[in-house]
Every structure is written in C-alpha cells, then in structure tokens.
Amino acid sequence: MGRPRTTSDEAILRATARAIEHHGPQGLTLAAVAREAGLAPATLVQRFGSKRGLLLAFAAHATEVAGLPFQRARKEHGSPLEALRAALAGLAEGVAGPRELAGSLGFLQLDLTDPEFREHAAEHARRTRDEIAGLLADAVTAGELRGTADLGPLARAVQVAYNGTLIVWALTGEGPLAEAMRESVDQALRPYAAT
Q1: For the residues 65-76, what does the mean pLDDT come to?
Q2: What is the pLDDT of residues 22-57, one digit of tens each?
Q3: What is the set of domains in the chain, with CATH numbers?
C-alpha cells in the first residue's frame, strides 16, 4: 500500500500558479513547482507525469473553478451589477502588475498553439461569458439594466472590456486595477442602464 498524499492536488495547483507568476509557463520547471509546494519533483512526476501534464491539470482546474468568483460575488452583493464588478475584480486578483499578466499571456501562447490547452481555454471563456450573462440577466430582473438589452452581445462586450482592461492597465499602470476594471465595465453597461 502506497503512502497517503499529504499535499492535495489543489494545493499543488495553487503552488503551480505561484510558480507561473515567477517564471511564466515556458520557464516553469517541476523543480520550481515542487519548491513552492514543499514537495520533491518526483512527486509531481508521479502525479502528473510531466510538466505538460501538470500544466494541463492546471488549465483544467482553472476551467472547473471559473464560476467561483461569480458565486462568491452573488453571495456577498445584493446588486447583480455590484456582484458582476466584484466577480471580475476577483478574476483579476492574481494580477498585481505586468509580471503576473506576462505569465497569463505566456499561457495564452499555449492556448493558441496547442489544441488540448485551447480546449480548456475556450471552455473557460465560455463559462466566464455565461456567468457574466447570468448576472446581466439578474440585473435586468432587478431593474438595474433595461429589458431591451441584448444580453448575449452585451456579455461578450463586458468580457472583452475585462480582458482589454487587464492588458491596458498592465501597460500603463494607471491607478488601481479594480478601479480601472469598474470604469470599463460601467462604460460598457452605461447605454443599457435603467436610470
């Protein structure tokens, strides 16, 4: 009988996220992740097979938990639009500056060139857009947005505003990211505001 796991896969994936922040996915090594997780590199090989296997597990996990910031925001905010702003800020929590965003953009290179990574990235994008659309629908029901808003294209516009804000903010460093995110989302929604 093998030894029980003392470190969960989830803890290893959190360590992977920290290592990606420092090294990017291309510069990432199993040794770097092992140091972050307090494990031997052989443990990572045993669980994930390779660096690619670990990164695919990381991508799959990110897709699985894509809705968590939205669920958390729904519980914490009575207003659907406030929940939307908070959820998008939650998605960007790990981005403190250009270095962290560079790690995400490095992952985007994998997403664009490798079909297995692309599948996870596309599903993550769909789930995120669906969560945004759900909060926009709730905002219509709550009277925060006009009922004439076409929610599919509007959800896409909010998602594009979110991604664009991340890049522009990382390049310019103007003000806090949460504030920049709020302004971009509000601008996208302003034509549909109920008041």
Answers
A1: 94
A2: 888 888 899 999 999 999 999 999 999 999 999 999
A3: 1-64 (1.10.10.60), 66-195 (1.10.357.10)
**pTM for this entry:** 0.88
Beta bridge partners of 145: 193
Q: At what angle do helices 115-141 and 98-113 cross, to 10 degrees?
A: 120
The amino acid present at 187, given as its one-letter code, is Q
Give the max Cα distance, the chain. 65
**Helix or strand or coil: residue 193?**
strand
Closest to 160 in 3D by CA, of 114, 195, 129:
129
Predicted local distance difference test score (pLDDT) of residue 1: 43
Half-sphere exposure of 125 toward its Cβ, with a 13 Å CA cutoff? 14
3-state class (DSSP) for residue 76:
helix
pLDDT surpasses 60 at 129: yes
The backbone region for 100, taken as left when phi is positive above 0, alpha when psi lies in -120 to 50, beta otherwise, is alpha
CB 132 within 8 A of CB 155: yes
Provide φ and ψ at 8, rounded to 5°.
-70, 160
Sign of CA dihedral 13, 61, 77, 186: positive
Q: Please, which residues bridge with residue 104 across strands?
A: none
Question: Tens digits of per-residue pLDDT, 87-116?
Answer: 998 888 777 777 777 777 788 888 999 999
